[in-house]
Amino acid sequence: MFSCTLTVKARIIAGITLAILVMGGGATALSVYSMRTTAEATFQQASTQALRIFSQHISSLLEDADNCLESLSKDPDFLNGQNVFPRLPVQTEFRLRHDDLSPEARKALKPLLTQLSSRPAVSEIYATFSNGAYIATLPDDTLPAGMDMRRRDWYTSRFSSSEAAGLSDSYVSLTNNQIVVSATHQLRDANNSLIGVIGLDLPLDRLTSLVAQMNSGKTGGFVLFDGSHRILSAPRYPDMEQKILGEDVKDDDWEALHDIPDGNVKTELRGVPVLATALT
Prior knowledge:
By secondary structure, the chain is an alpha+beta fold. The protein is built from 7 helices and 13 strands.
């Protein structure tokens, strides 16, 4: 099982309850205070439930990715790929086409294609062995001269890790320009010797689409961050989406929103008092 969780943080932001504070005093104020208290309690309950459902969706996604990589890491046909897949690096630009693979290599590739075909949430599966052998589920890909996958972060970080499996922060994929999270798993032979790393990409557009569809009232909205302070989705603040806090934009209110602990917190966003419910 993965030793870590997907590094995204969901935040629900709502200005509806605190906006009631602008109303007048006297008996009206007591009525308004009661309305505000009830509204806050309702928001807290509904938002917490929504975030738990969202968290369950993420957990299900990760469990499926873990099962996929665990299964492939034990597949003898695939593991034989270290002997038959193309080896990198090469001195010239290299075109990796499934149609050009040897029959033995296509047989070793088949388990990856089978797993990919049943997992719409996965965009690509790829693997590199310690001898340089490399394969990916993209049917036709061109790699630059000198490319060595054993030097890529997804390979080096997992190969040198004490944990067999894990997840990366989000990043922009070079293959399709999608924002993805990589799940990786060590590969071992029959003698338990470390022989490579297999990985898969989980595009985050499915999560951001889910966030956009989630309802949180007239003045509320869901915000999704990742562990690198990237704002993955903020339907009510589209100008902030895909921005990395502290790099692309410097905003104390958004930084504070990102850093709030799990639970319900009163804060501000762009100078407006808001009530936020957070779940990591």
